[in-house]
Amino acid sequence: MQDQAEQRTDINTLGEFGLIEHLTRQFPLENSASIKGVGDDAAVIDNTGFLTVVSTDMLVEGIHFDLMYSPLKHLGYKSVAVNVSDIYAMNAQPKQITVSIALSNRFSLEALDELYEGIRLACKHYGVDLVGGDTSSSNRGLILSITAIGQGTAEKMVYRNTAKIGDLICISGDLGAAYLGLQILEREKQLFLSNPGIQPDLEAQNYIIGRQLKPEARMDIIEMFEKNQLVPTSMIDISDGLASELFHICTQSGVGAFLEESGIPIHPDTELQAIKFGLDPATCALNGGEDYELLFTINPKDVDKIRFLPDIYIAGEIVEAKDGINLHTKGGNIHALKAQGWRHFEG
Amino acid sequence: MQDQAEQRTDINTLGEFGLIEHLTRQFPLENSASIKGVGDDAAVIDNTGFLTVVSTDMLVEGIHFDLMYSPLKHLGYKSVAVNVSDIYAMNAQPKQITVSIALSNRFSLEALDELYEGIRLACKHYGVDLVGGDTSSSNRGLILSITAIGQGTAEKMVYRNTAKIGDLICISGDLGAAYLGLQILEREKQLFLSNPGIQPDLEAQNYIIGRQLKPEARMDIIEMFEKNQLVPTSMIDISDGLASELFHICTQSGVGAFLEESGIPIHPDTELQAIKFGLDPATCALNGGEDYELLFTINPKDVDKIRFLPDIYIAGEIVEAKDGINLHTKGGNIHALKAQGWRHFEG
């Protein structure tokens, strides 16, 4: 029962420019390099002596997110985190983002404010400025397109195609949780749709669900590299599942890999939840997506720089291409790994 | 009658990465500054000593374009032109673009190839590299999000908020044609929908329809500025109609404007077609959008640098803010201008 009707301001009352002004006025420019942000034809970024790094992602309602269980604030936060994660995966520092949205009339201004509040919180957390974007209507649903722009130096930039034979394969954190979080949310959605009176049973799975709804990009890992004077030999962020990302590194570097199942970090909550669902935890870690941890390789001479860090897991070694990409299971078998990952086109 | 069925390759057969590879393999990196393009987490751009300029636009089927009369190749070309136009409007040089698309299953690979062929032609024409993007599915329709990145110098960068009292208001080409082109296409679409056997009557309006379907960004005007050592005092590209853009410059610069109707360039075909539709040609030029000409102001001491150029029209003067933004009509009246322009939210 509601005593008061919720406030609902129609987007049309502001006009496009009023809407942009409304949405972006809480984003002061923080970086001295951000010479010009929202309000002109383009954003201007002064980065003399540095490399500019640009990454972009598009998120479509019903494909990449479901507003039945993704609060808009979380969606805003995640959409930024996902993009800056790509910049960190280059060993660079994100500095600016642009945000374009298209949305249908069913979204109120208050809903949009929630979305932008999440974006604002993420900008603050990762130290990036919102410097531009575009806002328009859509016939159906919400579409978000975010571009992140970062800075790095030529000496420290890390690509996917530079892993060398003998390098150690490292992972920055536990995998598979985001995938299982999505399975729980999907299950509860289906139950709710068949019986709207039902209360969601999230099984107190805060950790797993949090990994799905509010992932963090690993800014701290990039800071650790800087502090420990470590430059990985290759790196990628794990958005599509460990197996798929390892395939990218190996294919582009012209090498193979020997991955230890025992070395793949899996959170105890993930392990238990996988078993409840009748799934193999390692399969969830290998093929579940959206964990946004970093997968990187290092020269073995650098191993002392990371060996005792709680956040880093050494999970295998880069080998010759002719030896393939194999998984050494806990059961003592060795079998060829398959890159499955997210396939939005097959959804 | 068709003898052979058209080839139709389902997008799903390629997978996401195969699709990206397929779509982007015809885009060699041309600029030496494009260190890394498609195929890593982010694009890397070396621009030591220069300013980076970034602009982004989102185009949604049914809102910004209609595939019933927008061939995909034209759409691809236009979506790039529209973005680089924003970079030129800063007096900067576009260098790279990223292209993100979401599309439903009704699009075949051949259709996508058409789209990317248009993008490729525009990249070639404007000298920009495609350096990244994202591709995913949508539940309905096609959504394009393009980010353009450019280079410029601090001395030559031109903003919207720096017009000065006494400056001359200049326009780079004729206005209103793109709007009338859209009206013709919309009329023919409605006739076709009510009677699919009918042949479209485009009234040999190649010029007007071309302005709508395949606008060009004014690269040549930026080159002329460079050659003539002219730096405008303010500039904006005309995407929403002259009146709306002039309001942006005046509001942000804290000035007014005195615009001469007789100085607004209108093509003879536009004039005739407006009259056929029972519209005032000047109103089409003032409030019709998508012409992508440049509106700029110059210090009167620079007038000799542009006075005799066929492409430049001087259409008024910047005045004090208290004098407002007025139009001096051909009929001898002076009345306050209204900024109407495109309002996609009111569509």
From TrEMBL, chains A, B:
Q: Which residues bind ATP?
A: 116, 133-134, 160, 239
Q: Which residues bind Mg(2+) 2?
A: 57, 86
Which pathway does the record list? Cofactor biosynthesis; thiamine diphosphate biosynthesis; thiamine diphosphate from thiamine phosphate: step 1/1
- What positions does the entry give for Mg(2+) 4 binding? 41, 55, 86
* Coiled coil region boundaries: none
Question: In its UniProt record, which GO terms are filed under biological process?
Answer: thiamine biosynthetic process; thiamine diphosphate biosynthetic process
Q: Does the keyword ATP-binding apply?
A: yes
Q: Which reaction does it catalyse?
A: thiamine phosphate + ATP = thiamine diphosphate + ADP
Which EC class does it fall in? transferase
Q: Which residues bind Mg(2+) 1?
A: 56-57, 134
**Annotated binding of substrate, by residue:** 64, 290, 342
Which residues are Mg(2+) 5-binding? 240
Please list the residues that bind Mg(2+) 3.
Answer: 41, 86, 237
Question: Which keywords accompany this UniProt record?
Answer: ATP-binding, Kinase, Magnesium, Metal-binding, Nucleotide-binding, Thiamine biosynthesis, Transferase
Name one molecular function that GO assigns to this entry: magnesium ion binding
Origin: domain of life: Bacteria
- EC numbers listed for it are 2.7.4.16
- Domain named PurM-like N-terminal: which ranges? 39-150
Under the heading InterPro entries, the entry gives:
PurM-like_C_sf (IPR036676), PurM-like_N (IPR016188), PurM-like_N_sf (IPR036921), ThiL-like (IPR006283)
- Which PANTHER family does the UniProt entry name for this protein? THIAMINE-MONOPHOSPHATE KINASE (PTHR30270:SF0)
- Annotated family: Belongs to the thiamine-monophosphate kinase family.
Q: What does this protein do?
A: Catalyzes the ATP-dependent phosphorylation of thiamine-monophosphate (TMP) to form thiamine-pyrophosphate (TPP), the active form of vitamin B1.
Further comment found in the protein's record: Reaction mechanism of ThiL seems to utilize a direct, inline transfer of the gamma-phosphate of ATP to TMP rather than a phosphorylated enzyme intermediate.
What's the protein called, per UniProt? Thiamine-monophosphate kinase
